[in-house]
# Entry
Amino acid sequence: MLLSREIGSLIHKSMSPAFVRFIVFLLPVILIVPSGCRSSRVPTVRFEQLNTFDLLPREATSVEIFITTTPQKPYSELGVVSLLTYKYNPSDRTNYFRLREKAADVGADAIIVIESRGETYTNYVTKQTYTGKVYRAMAIHYQNKQ
# Structure
């Protein structure tokens, strides 16, 4: 109530009390709702651990990316790295680098891309349709490092 009095005193005296109450009610909605919507569209890279391991993070540039082949060395699967791009759809190369960065955080030696497909999403509030891409890769660790 104190906040509404302070805001009310800042507003010109000729405005009706109903209009002032409307503004006081609407202001937090205007400030909060757009920030929630904006954050939900930011692509997030996730890691789902499959096996227990104790590896140190490494430089992302040292993580190999396998798209059409698999490594010839024996390896262990650490987990699945995934990314959903929503309507912000940068190039495949950029998204593979994002997957690689997450794999480097968990100490992986390489990633094997297992899925890269387009998908359509509908915002159930606004009924708008967006296209995006789903990326999934297996993060691996080489068994016999030399």
Q: What stands out?
A: The domain at 42-142 is CATH 3.30.110 (Translation Initiation Factor IF3). The chain has two domains: 2-38, 42-142. The chain is about 30% helix and 30% strand.
